[in-house]
TrEMBL record:
This is XRE family transcriptional regulator. It comes from Gilliamella apicola. InterPro entries: Cro/C1-type_HTH, Lambda_DNA-bd_dom_sf, LexA-like, LexA/Signal_pep-like_sf, Peptidase_S24_S26A/B/C. Residues 14-60 form the HTH cro/C1-type domain. Keywords: DNA-binding, Transcription, Transcription regulation. GO terms for molecular function: DNA binding.
Length: 216
């Protein structure tokens, strides 16, 4: 049984609709639909979903244990050691204004960071246009397989070749609206047909965790 099957089963048993679950955990009904239909299996809201449905998170994610969550709220469950790993650094984002950047793909290496997304990658930030949220020299981690929600920071690639790091304000009526990371610039609105990709920014990582090609 897949994650999608387990989620569908739990929602049917609990009598919870896609719309109700989405509203309960703060995501769109489309996001819940994608999870239920196997269009995505990685979502940072799984903890909230399990909590809202009052089911066992381990069962939802992996199928281990029982569906019902009978564990007391104040009891701490050991689920294993913190995982180690690295992800690829795909380049350097040379920041311009309003979160837009030029890509320097000559910069590479790896970042000491664990991700469950097999397609995760990092970009080094150069420039201060997103200070104080993101400092020059830090890395942003991108997890393309996680569906971003309103309020999340995202990497936006437009079909005319622009790259931006923004905060997703909303997506509705075939329109995206983004705000700047540090609120120094006005929001921008893009039609769906102007957008090539929107990818979830999961973390901001200090430069001490960078490994250049000679250290790998």
């Amino acid at each position: 049984m897949s994650l999608a099957d387990r989620l569908t089963l739990a929602m049917r048993i609990k009598g919870i609709s896609q719309a109700a679950l989405g509203e309960g955990v703060g995501v769109s009904q489309t996001t819940i639909w994608k999870l239920m239909n196997g269009k995505t299996s990685s979502n940072r809201k799984l903890y909230e979903i399990a909590d809202y449905l009052k089911i066992n998170l381990n069962w939802l994610v992996s199928g281990d244990g029982e569906m019902e969550n009978n564990q007391p709220k104040n009891e701490i469950e050991y689920i294993g050691n913190i995982k180690e790993g690295t992800i690829i650094v795909k380049g350097e984002a040379i920041m311009g204004t309003d979160g837009a950047f030029q890509m320097d793909e000559d910069f590479n290496g790896r970042l000491k960071f664990h991700s469950d997304d097999p397609h995760a990658f990092a970009l080094k930030v150069k420039g201060d246009s997103m200070f104080p949220r993101i400092n020059s020299g830090e890395f942003v981690v991108i997890e393309p397989n996680i569906v971003p929600c309103s309020g999340d920071e995202v990497l936006v690639r437009t079909k005319d070749g622009r790259n931006m790091i923004k905060k997703l304000e909303f997506h509705r009526d075939c329109v995206y609206r983004f705000t700047s990371i540090n609120q120094d610039h006005p929001p921008i609105t893009l039609d769906e047909n102007q957008v090539d990709k929107i990818m979830f920014v999961s973390a901001i990582v200090k430069s001490a965790r960078y490994l250049d090609v000679h250290e790998i």
